[in-house]
Amino acid sequence: MDLLLTPNGIALLTFLGGTSILAALFWGLRDLSRPADDPAAKPARLIRLPRFQEIERPTFTQQIDGWLERSLYWSALPVSTTAAAWLAVFIALAFGGAVFVASENELFAVVAALFGLGGLAAFLEVRKRRRLNKYEQQFPAALDLLARAVRAGESVEQAMQVVGESLHEPAGVEFQRCAGQLEMGLSLAACMRSLGHRVDQMDTRIFATTLSVHRDAGGNLPVTLERLAEVIRDRMSYQRQLSSVTAAGRYSAMLIASVGPLLFLYFFLVQPQYGSKLTDDPVGRYVLATAIVSEVIGLAWIIRLIRSDY
């Protein structure tokens, strides 16, 4: 309680209050400026699809833009890429400004801002992976249903509409969008390229290539789809076995990745008299840099050992 009565504590509370008011005004104005019938106001589905551009060597900025668009798309958040970028800037300024007001140290403020950006990126990545995993679980059943519909005499366009209406989201939504694109006159090859761009998974790209080749060369499509569904199920069974075997290694990597930053924050925020020795003293800076490099190398090595490309 005495810490809050100090000048730094009062300045920190004032800064946090000001940032909270600015955040409330930003999101309030965003909601008021949106029409009531705006499709983007529906949180269950994002209408805007990620942009598809065939670029052989995208720049770093284009890669970041593509990751952000796909992450927001698969996170099912009613937020545009512009709003997400401004939110990232606000989080970085809020975390960095709060730490700078409390500690009056530029290095701590930069580290806190990076932690804020990393937390936002991790939040989007977790939501995206969760829905992608759900899509991957539904995908073999979608292929079986598509094969049965084609065998029953339906065209590929009609079969996709059947699959989209029969499955829940997210797989059902993706097939409905493909059926809608085909109904509007888009070619099957272009529709499959768009699907492979939205769903950045190997199984979906193989499926897209299979349909494109079948449209040009022909063949027994139901048998091909059923074999592909069987291969996907076998691979998913292998991944479950691999996940159970490498559980100890993954938990060790998580423990190593979390203990270091938490200890860093403890020393610099709770006991700055000890943490300052790591930045003020030349030997301390060397030890801190060595610890960071060693932890990064150890995490990369553990991830390399437990990762499987199958």
Question: Which key features would you list for this structure?
Answer:
single chain, 310 residues, mainly alpha, Receptor-associated Protein, elongated, disordered N terminus
Output the structural class.
mainly alpha
The CATH architecture assignment of the domain at 132-243 turns out to be Up-down Bundle
Question: What's the name of the CATH homologous superfamily of the domain at 132-243?
Answer: Type II secretion system (T2SS), domain F
The percentage of residues in β strands lies in under 5%
What does this molecule look like?
Helices cover 79% and strands 0% of the residues. The chain contains 13 helices and no strands. It has helices at 7-32, 60-75, 81-103, 106-151, 156-166, 171-183, 188-198, 202-217, 221-245, 247-270, 272-275, 277-280, 282-306. α4 packs across α5 (156-166), α4 packs antiparallel against α9 and α6 (171-183) packs antiparallel against α7 (188-198).
